[in-house]
Amino acid sequence: MKLGFIGAGNMGGAILRGYLASGRIQHKDVFVCGRDLDKLEKLCTELGVNPCQNISELMDACNVIMLGVKPNMFPEIMPQVAEKYSSDKILVSMAAGVTIESISGFVGKEAKIVRVMPNTPAMVNEAMTSVSRNKNVDDEQFVSVFDIFQSIGKAEEVEEQLIHCVIGVSGSSPAYTYMYIDALAEAAVKNGMNKEQATIFAAQSVLGAAKMVLETGVDPVQLRINVCSPGGTTIEAVKTLQEKGFSELVEAGFQAAVDKSRLMSK
């Protein structure tokens, strides 16, 4: 694989760093281009990868191309991509609201396209990424792309129509989780703990609870029941959260993200 990144900002850069750190690709086989040539040179020197002066140069060098630019940049960059696109190349897009069909409109209906929706924990190799492909990407080609996202956390193949749901449950949800952690920490501060220590206690508890769900295979509802001793502190907290509409608030936030994603795709 010769892997190219058109844009390596926060998300693209996190994926790039994570995949390099996995050791599954050699630095000499990675190419990057970007609008800010000074930042590009600095990044490529730091990571030991190849800078490209323009999209044309990168397209010539690579057979898997990550489209790491904002949705509003697609009308500008895609004609340049299309000019150099050939059937041996796979385009991988991480842009919210940009469908596989709309990308095909630039490069043709026979183009091989994969659409992904990672999240910001990619920066610490704990991303959750959905991966969707069109019919032109065969299993062997898909595995090579899927491996990139497995190297930076967990990945699941889903139908593209579920991407709005993915955005609600994982793409945007780190933000809701940060809110929960901060609220816990602020409550601890009000009870005498300093903010730095309180944040560690809250964040580690969220991390541990998440690992319990992933590694035990026990339903989250049962895990909650298991920790709620009758007449204890935890069940008192859970009852209060339920009375205050905790689940309904989370669902409302989720749905707002989903609805916005659908609107962006129109």
Automatic annotation (TrEMBL):
Keyword Metal-binding listed: no
GO molecular function: pyrroline-5-carboxylate reductase activity
Pathway annotation: Amino-acid biosynthesis; L-proline biosynthesis; L-proline from L-glutamate 5-semialdehyde: step 1/1
Entry-linked Gene3D superfamilies: NAD(P)-binding Rossmann-like Domain (3.40.50.720), ProC C-terminal domain-like (1.10.3730.10)
UniProt entry tagged with the keyword Flavoprotein: no
Predominant cellular place of this UniProt entry's protein: cytoplasm
Residue stretches making up the Pyrroline-5-carboxylate reductase catalytic N-terminal domain: 2-97
Domain Pyrroline-5-carboxylate reductase dimerisation intervals: 160-262
Record-linked InterPro entries: 6-PGluconate_DH-like_C_sf, NAD(P)-bd_dom_sf, P5C_Rdtase_cat_N, P5CR-like_CS, P5CR_dimer, Pyrroline-COOH_reductase
Pfam family, one: F420_oxidored
Substrates-to-products reaction catalysed: L-proline + NADP(+) = (S)-1-pyrroline-5-carboxylate + NADPH + 2 H(+); L-proline + NAD(+) = (S)-1-pyrroline-5-carboxylate + NADH + 2 H(+)
GO CC terms: cytoplasm
PROSITE patterns: P5CR
SUPFAM superfamilies from the UniProt entry: 6-phosphogluconate dehydrogenase C-terminal domain-like, NAD(P)-binding Rossmann-fold domains
TM stretches of this protein: none
Domain of life: Bacteria
Signal peptide bounds: none
EC number: 1.5.1.2
Keywords: Amino-acid biosynthesis, Cytoplasm, NADP, Oxidoreductase, Proline biosynthesis
Chain residues that bind NADP(+): I6, G7, A8, G9, N10, M11
Top-level EC class as recorded in UniProt: oxidoreductase
Location within or outside the cell: Cytoplasm
GO biological process: one example: L-proline biosynthetic process
Protein family per UniProt: Belongs to the pyrroline-5-carboxylate reductase family.
Known role: Catalyzes the reduction of 1-pyrroline-5-carboxylate (PCA) to L-proline.
Protein name: Pyrroline-5-carboxylate reductase
Lineage of producing organism: Bacteria, Bacillati, Bacillota, Clostridia, Peptostreptococcales
